[in-house]
Amino acid sequence: IVGSEIVAKAPPDGHTILIVATGYALNPSLYSTLPYETLNDFERITLLAYSPNVLVVHPSLPVKTVKQLIALAKSRPGDLNYASSGAGTGGHLSIELLKHMAGIQMVHVPYKGAGDSTAALVSGQVHMLMTAPGAAIPFLKSGRLRAIAVGSGARVKALPDVPTVAEAGLPGYAVEGFYGVLAPGKTPRPIVDKLHGEMARISKLPDVNTQMEASGFDPVALGPDQFTDFVKKELQKWPPVFKAAGIKLN
């Protein structure tokens, strides 16, 4: 938030840019006030890549599909729990959306970072977690965790055999974590377009593209207008989820 405020107030000359993640679209629902206006104080340059999460469970949990998980949660309301790397993070909100859409209750157990939450799941202290594919894959290969589904709207190349949540039993579900680049509001469109063009070119280089996909990212380099449309949809999607879950950080 501090970095966003600095960039929002910077001269709109293309020399100051900001890399943002999913929180850029979540913060307006998380915080009562922000020191910037999410849409008007920035020009969106590019949505560099989607960063999907994968829903993983401890092998002791007797479920292998989303349908089985929902059925188990409904038969044991409030008994199942899930870890996250902190309140208001993408992993937390991804499962809150699943709860909201499926009509189930599970207990949130926040940890101080992705390392702690993953360790808690691997050791069996919690039942499940939504996390980045790169963090989960080593434990999936060793059999210490089980992948149920990916949260994105499409399957992930790093986990081609794992269905989406929508495919696996909850139609309409999709959470697109992302990384994007912003410039200060009122940056001239020719500058924005030039920056987007260069970033798109670099993201398509074979070595860059391959490395991003191997890490679980989906490089897309969407243009300014597409990025803006995406953010507007995200800003509409999340408030009901936050309200239902009672999530507010200030």
Tell me what you see in this structure:
- By secondary structure, this protein is α+β, with helices and mostly antiparallel strands.
- It has two domains: 2-51 and 177-245, D-Maltodextrin-Binding Protein, domain 2 (3-Layer(aba) Sandwich), CATH 3.40.190; 54-168, D-Maltodextrin-Binding Protein, domain 2, CATH 3.40.190.10.
- Helices cover 42% and strands 18% of the residues.
- The strands form two sheets. The chain has a five-stranded mixed β-sheet with strand order 5-4-6-3-7.
- Helix 2 (23-30) packs parallel to helix 10 (224-245) and helix 4 (90-102) crosses helix 10 (224-245).
- The longest helix is centred in the last third of the chain and has 22 residues, at 224-245.
- The model has no long low-confidence stretch (mean pLDDT 94).
**Shape descriptor:** globular
Major sheet: arrangement of strands: 5-4-6-3-7
Mean pLDDT: 94
Q: Biggest sheet, open or closed, and with what strands and sense?
A: 5 strands, mixed
Distance between the termini: 13 Å
Which features does this protein show?
single chain, 250 residues, alpha+beta, D-Maltodextrin-Binding Protein, domain 2, 5-stranded mixed sheet, 18% strand
Quick summary:
This protein is α+β, with helices and mostly antiparallel strands and 250 residues long.
Tell me the layout of helices and strands.
Blueprint: H1 2-8, E1 18-21, H2 23-30, E2 42-50, E3 54-57, H3 66-75, E4 81-84, H4 90-102, E5 107-110, H5 114-122, E6 128-131, H6 133-141, E7 146-150, H7 165-168, E8 178-184, H8 189-203, H9 206-214, E9 218-222, H10 224-245
Parallel strand pairs: 4-5, 4-6
Antiparallel strand pairs: 1-8, 2-8, 2-9, 3-6, 3-7
